[in-house]
Each structure stands twice: as C-alpha cells, then as structure tokens.
Amino acid sequence: MKQVKKIYSLLFGMMILCVACEFKLKPNEDADQAMHVEVQRYDRLQSRYLTTGDFSALQQMNTGYPMETRTLIEDMLRLGDVNDPEINTKFLNFYQDTLLQTIISDAELQYANVDDLNHEFSMAFERLSTLLPDIEVPVIYAQIGALAQSVVIGDKMIGISLDKYLGKDYPAYLKYYPANQRKSMTRANIVPDCLVFYLLSVYPMPNFDSRSQEEKDLHMAKVMWTVNKVLGRQFFNSQYVKTIEHYMYHHPKFSVDALLQNNDYSLFKK
Fold first, then answer.
1. How confident is the model at residue 268, as a pLDDT?
2. Where in the chain does DSSP place strands (E)?
3. Contact (Cβ atoms closer than 8 angstroms) between residue 243 and residue 205
C-alpha cells in the first residue's frame, strides 16, 4: 500500500504534462512486423554538453529535442526560461556539481546499452495495443534529471531519468533515500514505472482531489493490474491489485478499457 501511495504522490505531485511535442517514433514500414519501440538517447547529447561543454551537442539538443530540453530546463530543474540568453550557461553550471558529474558518468556507463529496455518496451506496447487498440505508442527518451522526477509524462512522450535507476545500493542513494524507496530505483523498474505513469495519463482519475484514499488506491491498482497483464508477471502485488485481479477473474467479459474507464469503485468493494 505504501508503494501505491508513493507512486500516486509522484504522479500528481511531480509529473509534468507537456504539450505540442514532436512525434519522433517512425512506424514500421511493414505492418506485419512486430512492433519496435526504441529509447531515444537524448541523455548522450546531454552528457556530452554537460561534461565537456560541447556546443554542437547543445545545438542538437535544441534542434532535435526542443520539447525535451524545455521540459528539463524549465519544468524539472526550474532554471528559467529556455529562451533566456543566459540559460545555457545556467544549465551547464548547474551540472558542474561533483555529485552530478559522477552521476552522469555512472548513468552513461550503466546504460551504455539499452537493448534490453528496447525489447521490453516493444513487447509491452505490442501487448498493450492488443488490450487497448486505440492507445498511442509514445516517444520514449532517456535523460539525466539531476535526481528530480523518475519519469516525465508529456503529450505522446515518456522521459526516463536514468539517474533515478542506478540500483538500490548506488552510493549516492544510500545517503539521500530510505531503503524502501531505493528498492524501486533499479533498472528492472523502468518499464513497469513508465507503463504505470503513461496509463495514468491516458486514464486519469476524475475529481481526484475529492476522492477517498481507498478510491485512489483502487484506481492505481487498476493500472498496476493492467501493467502486470502486459508484462506477463506479477510485478505489482498490493492488496488492491489483488482486489482488481479477483474482480477481473470473475468478470472475464469486462474489457481492460472498460476497467480503466470505470469510475464506480463500489464495484470492487462487493
């Protein structure tokens, strides 16, 4: 239950909703091919600029990833307006902190290869598209978020902050995060977290502020149960997820889309 409340707090307290982004994911030329989703390596350009001051990397960030750059600078780091003449210097100086430089280096080393994530995302969205035919496949990109949000959700976008997934025993985490929080700061949590946050953005809870905590927990559990189904394993296993699982088992004709859109939480209390 603590994990459920934690993720809700992250989503509604920190999640950034962006608008008017570019849709960079190219569809497969052959519709019969399996879906291929690839993490865009925005973090590599970011790393080049923030560790070496390479201006060409900054130019590529601004031209190839304008919305991602704006989201990072303005909304996550809150350094100021992206059009400020001094913003590039502020951005560069912000990351000169010794800890952040170490984190950048460690993140790039750990995530030098993300073929496993690409495969997991491809499989997950292929299954999700079967369960929810109308859902759009987002652009997924990696970044170094300076220990801010783990996942950023925008308009057809998912941003992964690699610095928040360096492992539960990562030295910096031991100082700043409690053990129960560090358990989820691992590579294995990236795909499940992204799916949860993305589905919550597609299926938001109406009148969230006026809802009871139990209703909020059940709404989160509906999304977590769906992610478990997509992943083909019990990644999330809270009391409320079990409640949803029990309900869906006894109502096999109730579609996943109907489940996620349903706002009558009394159904799950019977």
1. 87
2. 139-143, 151-154, 157-161
3. no
Is the four-CA dihedral 74, 208, 230, 239 of positive or negative sign? Answer: positive
SS3 for 129-149 is HHHCCCCCCCEEEEECCCCCC
State pTM to two decimals.
Answer: 0.86
Average pLDDT, the chain: 88
* Rounded CA separation 8/216 (Å): 8
Gyration radius (Cα) of the chain, Å: 19
The amino acid at residue 156 is K
Residue 219, judged by CB atoms within 10 A of its CB (0-12, 13-18, 19+), counts as buried
pLDDT over threshold 90, residue 174: yes
Q: Is residue 182 a contact partner of residue 168, using CB atoms and an 8 Å limit?
A: yes
CA-wise closest residue to 108 among 24, 45, 54: 45
Rounded Cα distance, 182 and 170, in Å: 9
Cβ atoms within 10 Å of 257's Cβ, excluding its own: 15
Q: Which residue in 16, 140, 20 sits closest to 74, CA to CA?
A: 16
Q: At what angle do helices 2-14 and 190-202 cross, to 10 degrees?
A: 60
Looking from the CA of 192 toward its CB, the CA atoms found within 13 Å total 20
Two tokens, residue 69: 């750059």
User: Which of 109, 101, 22, 127 has its CA nearest to residue 67?
Assistant: 22
Instruction: Give the sheet arrangement for strand 157-161, strand by strand.
Output: 139-143, 157-161, 151-154
